[in-house]
Write a structure and sequence with these properties.
Elements: E1 7-11, H1 16-27, E2 31-36, H2 39-48, E3 53-56, H3 62-75, E4 81-84, H4 101-127, E5 132-137, H5 150-169, E6 175-180, H6 188-197, H7 208-220, E7 225-226, H8 230-240, H9 242-259
Parallel strand pairs: 1-2, 1-4, 2-3, 4-5, 5-6, 6-7
Helix pairs in contact: 1-7, 3-4, 4-5, 8-9
This protein binds NADP nicotinamide-adenine-dinucleotide phosphate.
Organism: Mucilaginibacter ginsenosidivorans
Protein name: SDR family NAD(P)-dependent oxidoreductase
GO cellular component, one term: membrane
Length: 260
């Protein structure tokens, strides 16, 4: 896919992977709109890159997504690329009484249903564009779950499956469906997780810049399932020796669960 002169909406584009993708897309001469819950974060992103447009939106809230879609279609009729990146990750020791069902539901709505609603709402519009695309940001944990984050893994596996289904349904249309499945990336999400479990450095991580470069390379080459770095290793290990892959991640999870 040609990665210039597109109009791109990135959910969760005010920080981390979403913001880094926004920066790179701008450098490639695209118009970029970012959304997120925290308006200050969005304003700070716009201060760094004034051409970025910002819209406040909570993807876990059905009405907020409806309003976003309405605004986007009115103000950006050339929108042709949706990046479903917004996500949260929570650790749950399901044996604890403090396990919070509402927060678990929020995690599902944010990571999975937000993507479904936004994609579904924009499909009629994207079908009318000459070249269009959706990029879903899932995770290497879609292949091999880390048991300390049971809801997160399930939402990412759901995104992976959903991406395959809609790619097949939209074959031979204007819309290309991409998915990137990162392993550990140096962002606030990883730092927050380490803080919660009290581990300073939980392991090697890829920089968001490197991830964005590999993602862009994948999109340019029409690689529909982009598995950067360790995620590709995990994918192949899981394909050929699933129990080995699962045990590797399980060991990490057991250490984390002791802290929860
Ligand atoms: N970091 C990793 O190791 C890693 C690995 C694999 C996959 N991923 C995936 O990559 C994506 C980006 O994560 P990141 O590492 O860049 O984390 P991050 O730095 O925490 O960024 C997450 C972004 O999502 C936004 N967001 C969260 N909930 C939202 C909601 N309900 N509505 C709208 N925006 C929301 C946040 O902004 P607000 O707080 O302002 O809403 C924030 O800008 C996520 O889907 C994550 O699962 C990350």
């Amino acid at each position: 896919m040609d990665l210039s002169n597109n109009t791109i909406l990135i959910t969760g584009g005010g920080s981390g992977i979403g913001f880094t993708l926004a920066k790179k897309f701008i450098q490639l001469n695209n118009r970029v709109i970012i959304c997120g819950r925290n308006l200050e974060k969005l304003k700070a992103a716009k201060q760094k890159y004034p051409s970025i447009e910002i819209i406040q939106c909570d993807v876990s809230d059905e009405h907020s997504v409806e309003t976003l879609v309405q605004e986007i279609l009115e103000t950006h009729p050339n929108l042709n690329f949706l990046v479903n990146n917004a996500g949260i990750m929570k650790m749950w020791n399901i044996r604890r009484e403090t396990t919070n069902i509402r927060e678990q539901k929020k995690e599902i709505l944010t990571n999975f249903f937000g993507t479904v609603q936004l994609t579904q709402s924009l499909i009629p519009h994207l079908l009318g564009q000459k070249n269009s695309a959706v990029l879903n940001v899932s995770s290497g944990l879609a292949f091999v779950p880390m048991s300390a984050a049971p809801i997160y893994n399930a939402t990412k596996a759901a995104i992976h499956s959903y991406s395959i289904s809609i790619r097949q349904q939209l074959q031979n249309t204007a819309i290309k469906i991409f998915e990137v499945l990162p392993a550990a990336i140096e962002t606030q999400m990883a730092t927050d997780m380490e803080k919660i479990i009290g581990i300073e450095n939980s392991g090697p991580k890829m920089s968001p810049e490197k991830l964005a470069e590999l993602t862009i390379k994948g999109i340019k080459n029409d690689t529909y399932e982009i598995r950067p770095g360790m995620a590709n290793m995990l994918y192949h290990l899981h394909r050929f020796t699933p129990s080995l892959a699962q045990n590797m991640i399980r060991k990490q999870s057991e250490k984390i669960l002791l802290k929860l």
